[in-house]
């Protein structure tokens, strides 16, 4: 066996946490349970738990049994791009209501983001996104015209635009996400059922193909009491990040 | 020479952008300028520019000269942890005003984050941070007591707490950053000179040592018109992220 036992134990625990078998807040199996399960001594079990603790996946006070802190250290690229796929991965039900699919001339700002000239046609989609029927996010997405025109034949209320565009052969291999905060405007307020001026977590996303050509630019606004973004970094390992959800209280 | 010419050209441009020699918004040297500088043909120059475009470091419309979009694709771990070091890297002047250094019993929430028991002593620092004398961020940082007590002998107005703690041998090898948005409270409002309720970009950070033991937990609130966080990901490469700054308008 090439993989040391402590790494096998750690990998199995990561899998159980990522799958939701061990949800956030759940007690991590005790050392003696893990020793029995793996027919292992305390050494590798403690090594595995130390690794997960260092990754921030589990935590807990001194002398208290450790609990799960986070769903996943890192989420696959597609999950981070697609709201629908992310919510499915949480074991929840994604939903969407399309307010608008419009062909418009690009503004100067959008032209700059999409490497177009001002006035070039773009296709814009405004959708309200749900998790388990709770309005959670508003997406204002602009596609370059050759991609956006594919949406004229698609029911944007039916599910994931990204899955559909992927099936159509659209290449969105790279994405840049800019996180900041904005005050809810009248549209945000009405659709999310919050006060005008309430703080929203904004993700501005620019997706490009392998060749670096922009495909879409989006302004997504999340209710910050429901969604946050996590970044993990260390002096040793590659950074990882995840979109986190907590259910409405 | 092991490194292909187009990679050398790309690396040099990245260095010039990261150092601020080519700031955000600046025109990228033209193809013919780069050909002359490198005594190269158009091929490798175009390859280098395509790579930077794919990384999102440069952009611009068709037929328009490309401009610099971002300062850096990824920032070193220390830069992401330390506000002072990050601001120095921007070629700007970091500043701080310490409002409070206090020893307190840990609340239940802090005890959970720091793997302590409720009521265990912690050391809390409240500082207003500046970039070029503009109030930009408020940090509310809580240290475990053995680390925090080192600050009793340190002037928190004098510079980077992280640099100081590092010199004292404190190990902060890992960090998790949770990004969301909050409304400015009375303290935020007064210190940052903004309205109560204004949206702020919040970073909650938990730093741990190599052994996974928590060292600090911080609630940092940024003016979102000045600072954003960027995440880059792709199907091919490791994710990268950066803290971005734009000067007050």
Architecture overview:
- Chain A is built from nine helices and ten strands.
- By secondary structure, chain A is an alpha+beta fold.
- In chain A, the strands form three sheets. The first copy, chain A, has a six-stranded antiparallel β-sheet with strand order 3-4-5-8-7-6.
- In chain A, a hairpin with a 5-residue loop joins β9 (227-234) and β10 (240-245).
- Chain A is elongated and about 65 Å long.
- The mean pLDDT of chain A is 86.
- Chains A and B meet through α3, α6, β6, β7 and β9 of A and α3, α6, β6, β7 and β9 of B.
- β6 of chain A pairs antiparallel with β9 (227-234) of chain B, so a sheet runs across the interface.
- Chains A, B: One of its GO terms (molecular function) is DNA binding.
- Chains A, B: This is GntR family transcriptional regulator.
- Chains A, B: Keywords: DNA-binding, Transcription, Transcription regulation.
Record keyword descriptors for this entry.
six-stranded antiparallel β-sheet, 249 residues, DNA binding (chains A, B), transcription regulation (chains A, B), DNA-binding (chains A, B), Chorismate lyase, 2 domains, alpha+beta, two-stranded antiparallel ribbon, homodimer, WH_DNA-bd_sf (chains A, B), WH-like_DNA-bd_sf (chains A, B)
């Amino acid at each position: 066996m090439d993989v040391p036992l402590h790494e096998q134990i750690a990998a199995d625990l990561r899998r159980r946490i990522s799958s939701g078998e061990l949800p956030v807040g759940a007690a991590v199996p005790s050392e003696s349970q893990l020793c029995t399960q793996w027919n292992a001594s305390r050494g590798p079990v403690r090594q595995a738990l130390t690794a997960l603790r260092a990754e921030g996946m589990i935590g807990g006070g001194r002398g208290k049994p450790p609990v799960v802190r986070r769903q996943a250290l890192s989420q696959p690229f597609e999950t981070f791009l697609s709201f629908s796929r992310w919510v499915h991965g949480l074991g929840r039900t994604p939903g969407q209501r399309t307010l608008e699919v419009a062909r418009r001339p690009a503004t100067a700002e959008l032209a700059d983001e999409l490497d177009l000239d001002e006035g070039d046609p773009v296709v814009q989609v405004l959708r309200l996104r749900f998790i388990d029927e709770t309005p959670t996010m508003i997406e204002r997405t602009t596609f370059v015209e050759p991609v956006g025109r594919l949406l004229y034949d698609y029911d944007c209320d039916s599910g994931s635009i990204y899955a559909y565009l992927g099936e159509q052969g659209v290449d969105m291999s790279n994405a840049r996400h800019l996180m900041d905060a904005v005050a809810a405007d009248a549209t945000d307020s009405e659709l999310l059922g919050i006060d005008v001026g309430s703080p929203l977590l904004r993700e501005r996303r620019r997706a490009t193909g392998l060749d670096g050509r922009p495909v879409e630019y989006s302004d997504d606004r999340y209710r910050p009491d429901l969604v946050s973004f996590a970044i993990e970094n260390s002096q040793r390992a590659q950074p990882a990040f995840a979109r986190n959800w907590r259910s409405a209280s």
